[in-house]
Write a structure and sequence with these properties.
Layout lengths: L2 E5 L3 E3 L16 E3 L6 E6 L2 E5 L4 H50 L10 H7 L5 E2 L2 E2 H21 L8 H28 L7 H18 L4 H28 L3 H4 L4 E2 L12 H12 L3 E4 L4 H10 L1 H4 L4 E3 L5 E2 L6 H6 L6 E4 L2 E4 L4 H8 L5 H5 L1
Parallel strand pairs: 9-10
Antiparallel strand pairs: 1-5, 2-4, 3-4, 6-7, 8-11, 9-12, 12-13
Helix pairs in contact: 1-3, 1-5, 3-4, 4-5, 4-6, 8-12
């Protein structure tokens, strides 16, 4: 590296030299006394070296400039991803709002592909989670993601929340949505083999895209810190959905390929006085039992009452014309919000599944005594 030597005002350095017999005088540079015993002065011009490259201050300034560019670029990329999250979340919100409206009004969806099979899927028991319409849950989730995306873009999070916490909530939300979509894709492939649902596929595409966009915000070291939490969230989603569908008895899935004409099942047990009195009381208070002719639990429920008492119950058959693929329940059952069979509606209460007679008596306020027996 080339260097320059710059001279400044001279400085003097005193030297001690051994006695010399010869006097010597160097013009302008070194001055010895003629009879000197030592060197009086050594004129040494101080030198200041500088390289041809940038100075230390310039290098520091350049490093700061280089460093300052990286966060700016990273922030710009983050804002772009947040905007994408807001946009995709908005699309999902519109889709699920439309499906929620159809679900609440019991209307048929317009299916560009899939035809009737698309409607069968949207109207199946898998479209409800613990009595809550699945599109309604999706509408809330997409709305949350869209709102968070906009607020992270503007750096204006509510409740004094920091950006790191906002990113974590966004990641957890999109992770739960992607986990739910993966579960429903499994259901679509196993329970509805050969069927097509454009709305389901679109929702899955949006969910996975949102998840990967938010995951892109995290570096490898950050992912290692939050991976445990995200696995717990995904597992919780799987367990919740599985629990919801295991407690109900899906209609359009277990009977998807069957064509069942309506039939009646004979009740073989004999009613006792308690069952007869309870059946009369249930009818008098307007209690209804909703069921399906092919439902074994409905038959078992009637067997507990016995042949005579079962005839006194206000029983509503949800498939009076038989069942085949695409058959819907009658309006009375749809309005009641059937989640599974049998289902009891007693004094504003809903009891799902097969019930003991004592539980029905307690729910209806029935007390067995001699007067009720002879009534």
């Amino acid at each position: 590296m080339a260097s320059l030597v710059s001279l400044s005002s001279p400085s003097f350095l005193s030297l001690r030299c051994p006695p010399r017999s010869i006097s010597y005088y160097s013009h302008g540079r070194i001055d010895f006394a003629k009879n000197g015993w030592g060197c009086r002065r050594l004129l040494v011009p101080p030198a200041k070296c500088s390289s041809s490259g940038p100075s230390g201050e310039d290098a520091d300034s350049e490093a700061e400039t280089t460093t300052s560019v990286s966060p700016f670029s990273s922030s710009s990329a983050s804002n772009l991803r947040y905007k994408w999250c807001a946009g995709l979340g908005g699309i999902g919100f519109v889709e699920t709002t439309y499906l929620t409206y159809l679900k609440l009004t019991n209307s048929d969806a317009f299916c560009p592909t899939g035809g009737s099979s698309c409607g069968d899927i949207l109207n199946s028991d898998y479209a409800v989670v613990f009595g809550v319409p699945l599109p309604l849950l999706g509408m809330v989730a997409y709305g949350l993601v869209a709102a968070l995306g906009l607020q992270l873009t503007r750096k204006n999070l509510p409740f004094g929340m920091g950006e790191s916490n906002g990113r974590l909530i966004l990641l957890g939300s999109t992770n739960s949505m992607a986990a739910a979509s993966a579960y429903f894709l499994y259901i679509l492939g196993t329970k509805f083999s050969g069927a097509s649902c454009s709305y389901c596929l679109m929702s899955a595409l949006l969910s996975f895209s949102l998840f990967f966009l938010t995951l892109k915000e995290y570096e490898l070291q950050e992912i290692q810190k939050v991976v445990g939490l995200q696995l717990c969230i995904a597992s919780l989603v799987f367990v919740t959905l599985n629990s919801s569908y295991s407690t109900s008895q899906p209609v359009s899935t277990s009977l998807a390929e069957l064509d069942l004409p309506y039939f009646t099942t004979e009740i073989t047990t004999t009613s006792n006085s308690f069952a007869l009195s309870l059946a009369k009381h249930l009818r008098s208070v307007g209690a209804k039992m909703y069921g399906a002719f092919w439902c074994s639990h409905c038959v078992e429920q009637k067997q507990k009452f016995g042949r005579e008492a079962a005839k006194l119950l206000d029983y509503v058959e949800c498939f009076p014309d038989g069942y085949r693929k695409g058959t819907k329940m009658i309006k009375a059952c749809t309005d009641a919000g059937i989640e599974g069979f049998p289902m009891w509606a007693i004094n504003g209460q809903v009891l799902s599944g097969e019930q003991e007679l004592s539980e029905l008596a307690q729910a209806s306020g029935f007390q067995f005594n001699e007067s009720s027996e002879t009534t």
